[in-house]
Amino acid sequence: MSKADNMLSILWLLKTRKRMTAQQLSEELEIHIRTVYRYIDALCASGVPIVADSGHNGGYSLLDHFTEVPLFFDLDEQKALIQAAIFAQESGFPHGDAMNRAVSKLKRYTNPEQQQTLERHTAGFEVIRPPADAALEAVLQQLELSVAGGRTLGMDYVKRSGAVTENRRIDPYGIVYWKGSWYVVAFCHLRKELRSFRADRIQALFATDEGFERPSSFSASEYFLKHLIPEPEGQEDLVSVWLEGSPRSIGDVCRHWLLGHTVVERSEHRVNLRLDAKSTLAFVPYFLLSYGKSLRVLEPSSLIEQTAELAADLYDYYRTMRQEPAADREDDRKD
User: Fold this and answer.
1) Of 136, 223, 146, whose CA–CA distance to 185 is shortest?
2) How far apart are CA 13 and CA 21, in angstroms?
3) What's the pLDDT tens digit per position in 99-139?
4) What residues have CB less than 8 Å from 9, skipping those under 6 apart?
5) How many independent structural domains does the chain possess?
6) What is the pTM for the complete model shown?
7) Start and end of every WYL domain (predicted)?
8) Do 157 and 207 reside in the same domain of the chain?
9) Residue 312 sits in which domain range?
């Protein structure tokens, strides 16, 4: 192991075993006893409070207050960090290699009993991970550095249509992970306003000599959600929606990304929402049909009628499909 690894190992051994002699440390780490003395001196010079006691029961130990510093994690903290690292893989965390190295170091300095406990708690904790995307990871790393350093970037960006690639200069204020995709919230020099951009549509990023100052109180997630769900133009556009159903279904409504922020009142079996009229008739009927009979609309009547019409259209569509000869369906697929 490297010098740094051996010195950290000494700290962990003194923390877990309270007191050890130089000979014991030498045998445990398989290094010369003179090397142990040099490492102890180096640790003391760096400010680590190591106490040397002479005599029959002597040895090296750490002052009690030092064993409580954040460098040393208890078993629950170690388990939480390792499981959080596994979970972060799902999002395409841009510093995966560094995270894996940190987890490896954390595991390396656990005793056998701790290691067995950690293995039991992580063996059944899994995340379905998307295919690795090295290009996206590099983009996210550069964006994160720009946010931290306040550096303006040049960007080649593919618009939603996919037909046009634009070059822009942006001041990245923050990156946001939302429903399986990464976004950057940035001041766009072309539009002269804040915008959000899909990170996977960024074809290239270029460093510039320009800098910017990120507002200290700015929240990228708050901006993103606010513009994802625009506010209605006025109170006259709001509609009161009452839903009744099972506790689980009502809970799903209250946690939904679009409906959750509109909750006015709720109980175990009922919830009152204040929605803009357009969303009430355009989106909510599709949401309701996915819950079948576990949700019931109490009001408004317009929502009941719109949901019923949608259900009838779907019924007619699938009934026609069932009656259509198999040969005709095969011809349609060939076309």
Assistant:
1) 223
2) 11
3) 888 888 777 766 677 788 888 888 888 887 777 788 888 99
4) 1, 28, 29, 109
5) 4
6) 0.61
7) 139-205
8) yes
9) 235-320
